[in-house]
Amino acid sequence: MILLDHASVIELLPMAECIELMAGVLAALARGDATLPLRTVLRVPERDAAIAMMPALLRGNADADAGVIGIKAITVYPGNRGTAYESHQGAVLLFEAEQGRLLAIADASTVTAVRTAAVSGVATRLLARADAGDLALLGAGVQAATHLEAMRLVRPLRRVRAWSRSPEKTRSFAERMTARFGVEVEPMATAREAVAGADIICTVTSAREPVLMGDWLADGAHVNAVGSSTPAARELDSAAVVRARLYVDRRESTLAESGDFLVPLREGLVTEAHIVAELGDVLVGRAPGRGSPDEVTLFKSLGLAVEDAAAARHLHARALATGKGLHVHLGGAREE
Ligand code: NDP
Questions:
Q1: Along the 336 residues of the chain, how does pLDDT read in single tens digits?
Q2: DSSP state of 217
Q3: Atom 34 (ligand 1): residue with closest C-alpha?
Q4: Which of 267, 273, 292, 319 has its Cβ near the most Cβ atoms within 10 Å?
Q5: Measured in whole angstroms, how far is the alpha carbon of residue 10 from the centre of its chain?
Q6: Maximum distance among all alpha carbons in the chain?
Q7: Which of 239-276 are b and which e, b meaning 16 or more Cβ less than 10 Å from the residue's Cβ?
Q8: CA dist 139 to 34, 58, 145, 201, 207, Å?
Q9: Model-level pTM?
Q10: Measured from the CB, is residue 303 less than 6 Å from ligand 1?
Q11: CA geometry: angle at 233 spanning 248 and 34, to 5°?
Q12: Quick check: CB of 275 below 6 Å from ligand 1?
């Protein structure tokens, strides 16, 4: 069994590789080669927090290859923002599906940071205009940083603006990202100023009430809505959802978990038919992507266990190939 810490995940799961990996697993899901239940969420109301359990089976591609099972256990403590701890912590466990052996345990904070932005990268590559180069980030935390990294890889960025609720954190984020990526990140005083005229907008906040309004969106914009994942919380107002052609990571999850979609649904402003397709359907050619340069496209990301399982499978293979990670005998082998 191989233990993969933060540094190992960063080294063995570069963003560019992860984008291809996520395109592959979302296509596999669309073809029926992966299965997953809805995640189980245990709330910790005293801390306004939760722990989510996310299992998935990725089938192998030959009779001799039973595939893998992944399960991520991750705590979500939004109140950790500004402390020494990240708001998402936990582990991704990877098993082989032939005999159920545990193969690897990887740091879920890092896997989640990278794979979520990589999925948004896949969505942006499929749905944003080819000449989209003006990026707005709403939020200045972990996901904002990895989303900047992913967006740079799928579109040549001309301009990057960032906004978060605290001007001080926005400024500090802009300085760090400018130094890290060599692209100037402009700190903005309001979300509206950050998104005015933007081609690509990533909402990556822990907000429960809308931070992005539909009437701020320029024609032709593409939005990755990443932050909210419960039926009552949303980052987008109803007008933004109504106005956009909506793509999702998974219909079933959207109908169960997405306040961004469920609030306008409950208001009677959209029906379930408003969901154009899952990303995987577009990837396998079963559904159309952007239809015209003027339309607004929206990808609602909830995060899927298949993404974590695919990342862990990749990490395990790379760790075997490179000798990286900590190799330990945990148990599970008969002793007689
Ligand atoms: P961080 O804690 O690192 O950052 C949170 C960001 O949200 C900060 O910029 C913070 O502002 C901002 N924020 C918090 N509360 C509010 C509010 N009420 N109004 C406006 N902004 C607010 O979190 P992450 O970057 O790790 O995650 C961001 C969001 O993405 C979370 O909601 C998380 O659950 C979600 N997520 C979604 C995934 C998916 O697969 N779809 C996967 C992982 C995370 P400030 O800078 O001022 O502190």
A1: 999 999 999 999 999 999 999 999 999 999 999 999 999 999 999 999 999 999 999 999 877 788 999 999 999 999 999 999 999 999 999 999 999 999 999 999 999 999 999 999 999 999 999 999 999 999 999 999 999 999 999 999 999 999 999 999 999 999 999 999 999 999 999 999 999 999 999 999 999 999 999 999 999 999 999 999 999 999 999 999 999 999 999 999 999 999 999 999 999 999 999 999 999 999 999 999 999 999 999 999 999 999 999 999 999 999 999 999 999 999 998 877
A2: P
A3: 227
A4: 319
A5: 16
A6: 69
A7: bbbebbbbbbbbeebbbebbbbbbbbbeeeebeeebbb
A8: 32, 32, 9, 11, 9
A9: 0.98
A10: yes
A11: 30
A12: no
- Residue 31 Cα to ligand 1 middle (Å): 32
Question: What does the alpha-carbon distance between residue 13 and residue 234 come to, in Å, rounded to a whole number?
Answer: 30
152 CA distance to ligand 1 centroid (A)?
20
Q: Whose CA is nearest to atom 26 of ligand 1?
A: 142
The phi, psi pair for 49, rounded to 5°, reads -135, 180
Q: Token digits for 335? A: 């002793």
Q: Are 68 and 102 in contact (CB under 8 A)?
A: no
Question: What are the angstrom distances between the C-alpha of 258 and each of 62, 88, 261, 304?
Answer: 36, 19, 5, 13
Radius of gyration of the chain from its Cα atoms, rounded to whole angstroms: 19
Sign of CA dihedral 73, 77, 81, 85: negative
Question: Distance (Å, rounded) from C-alpha 280 to C-alpha 248?
Answer: 9
Distances in Å between the Cα of 66 and the Cα atoms of 31, 69, 145, 320 are: 17, 10, 36, 19
Crossing angle of helices 142-154 and 15-31, rounded to 10° = 80
